[in-house]
Amino acid sequence: MPETAAIEVQGLGKRYQRPRPLRELLRGAPVPAPVQALQDISLRVGQGEVLGLLGANGAGKTTLINILCTLLAPSEGSARIGGHDVQQAPQQARAQVGLVTSNERSFYWRLSGRQNLRFFAELYRVPPREIEPRIDEFVQALGLAEFADRRFDGYSTGIRQRFAFARALLHHPRILFMDEPTKGLDPNASAQLLAVIRERIVAVWRPTIVLTSHNLSEIERLCERVAIVDHGRLLRIGTIGELARSIRSHQAYLLRLARVDAALLAWLRSWLGTERVRPLPPDDEQPGQALELGLAQGGPTLTELLSALIHRGQQILRCEPVDVSLEEVFRQTVREAAPPLPTDAARLKVAA
Ligand SMILES: Nc1ncnc2c1ncn2[C@@H]1O[C@H](COP(=O)(O)OP(=O)(O)OP(=O)(O)O)[C@@H](O)[C@H]1O
To answer: Could you name the domain of life of the organism this protein comes from (predicted)?
Structure first.
């Protein structure tokens, strides 16, 4: 029998009604069109998988997470969390999830971290006998022991965020949603929090994780698959390698050669295709000249290319693959999905 997916989303959509100021309501102004925050989203996240959700501001990431955490109702479609439908069985679905957001404000600032965790554990109906052992478990795991009995308002933002993780884990959820968990942290605190997540949460409990972040290197370091969302639509989902292959059909290599002249460039271009041969700007600190060369499937292999170059008397100083960055994948995916800009002719037609 196939394993139940941790998250299964089918044709999910969400429209927000724009708020109408009373003044406009009284004037009888026309009802503004609703905001289509999500449109026909379908995806599946396996148990224990770490998925990164990438999208520009307003793309719909928080809306999707809030629906999956049962905090918002979808306008259409369905979502199941650990097999429980978020609308038909919200309590069972909610019991499976923990949520960590940025700018956490719901802790009690005059209480200590430990007292806060005790309060939320009761709220989440953690069995009374298990409350103290679980608090100790997460305080230890997240490196919070020395802070737990101090007042919350004295903590740094990084420590507050670790308490937010401890709170999200108290009821032992199998699925953890992290909506920009490092937003507002300095680079050191971000790196420390990320290390804690990776070494003490992901490696130990193996929960399913959905992470949103505008910091692409965080997504690259933590996530197995990435979903790119834009204007409420899911544009692509896959491993970074799969997404890279979907935007670039060739493998690029950086080659540094002792001597590059016009004849060599012309020969390479006739062999590999003009657009796959790119001389890089000279670097005074490096000998020779660097080229970026793209090898397409079905074309010459790297071994063939190198032996042909050696055969032509070239001295190869360096050769390494150039991987597509997640940033490049993201930008290109969103660019390809954008509606074409109106041409001048179309603009003139509209104006007329
Ligand atoms: N309560 C609301 N009422 C009306 N529109 C909303 C509401 N919440 C979000 N929106 C709109 O829905 C769209 C998606 O917003 P959402 O917050 O989900 O995006 P996001 O990808 O999380 O953005 P960010 O990266 O800035 O957090 C945006 O156009 C936003 O303005």
So the answer is: Bacteria
